[in-house]
Amino acid sequence: MHDQVLNAPVIHRGFQEVKRREGRPKRQALLEYRAVAVTLEPSQRKFRPREPLPIHIVSACEINPPQNVEPIQWFLNTTEPIDSVQDVLEIVRLYTMRWRIEEYHLVLKSGCRIEKVQFESADNIKKVLSLMAAAALRLLQITYQARLDPDLACTVVLGDSEWRALQARIQHKRVPKKARPPTLKQAILWIGRLGGHMGRKSDGMPGVRTLWRGWRDLQILVVMFEIYQETPQNSVHA
Fold first, then answer.
1. Are residues 24 and 142 in the same domain?
2. Which of 6, 27, 194, 197 is the Cys-Cys partner for 214 at CB 3.0 to 4.6 Å?
3. What is the CATH number of the domain that holds 122?
4. Which segments of the chain have a pLDDT < 50?
5. DSSP track, the chain
């Protein structure tokens, strides 16, 4: 199948950003895109015949890579339609999101521990999954944004009550109304601290399980913070 798609004509050339990793700087790779339609003929079973499976193969191969750098060679099998160059580029774009998708499922399984749910009906599992999926997505958004721009204000991902409740809990004092919100990196470290992260220089950034515990506790803090904000001060002191 690889030979077949490599012998197909080039339908597009374009640059793809390659992220920094293992000490190698970020770079722009020039890729050639090809696509072909093939039909897979499965081996037949006597009592359960199998139908042929039509698929598309998309290749994205780097040309003129830097010296001593392994070139990109992606061969992607898909049942999605490939009717245009834009369809091919969309398949490649989705493939470049694979690590973020892996991280999402890591948060869902290791952080939210969705596999530990012991409901007996599929309907109940779907309900709790819908809640945990939203929480996992929010947590992934925060951590991913912190990697891209750690010095950005945390308000891009945290609401006003969330960061104020978090800062008040960590600093053990009221947050002034005109206080500047902490950075994303600082907010992540504080959420990790709620979850048990020690915050030592050698500890690095909080992991998935720690952030999940911290995020869970933060939501409880936010509820109490908002109740306190709505309560008249004389009633509180009384």
1. no
2. 194
3. 1.10.740.10
4. 236-238
5. -HHHHHTSPP-EEEEEEE--BTTBPPEEEEEEEEEEEEEE-PPP-SSS----EEEEEEEEEESSPPTT-PPPEEEEEE-S---SHHHHHHHHHHHHTHHHHHHHHHIIIIIS-GGG---SSHHHHHHHHHHHHHHHHHHHHHHHHHHH-TTSBGGGTS-HHHHHHHHHHHHTSPPPTTPPPPBHHHHHHHHHHHTT----GGG-S--HHHHHHHHHHHHHHHHHHHHHHHS-HHHHH-
Q: What is the pTM of this model?
A: 0.64
Report pLDDT for 23. 67
For position 227, what pLDDT does the model report? 86
pLDDT of residue 122: 86
User: Based on the domain organization, do 178 and 205 belong to the same domain?
Assistant: yes
Residue 130: exposed, middle, or buried by beta-carbon count in 10 A (0-12, 13-18, 19+)? exposed
Question: Residues 52, 56, 57, 62: what is their CA dihedral angle, to the nearest 10 degrees?
Answer: 180
**Which structural domain, as residue segments, surrounds residue 77?**
2-43+50-96
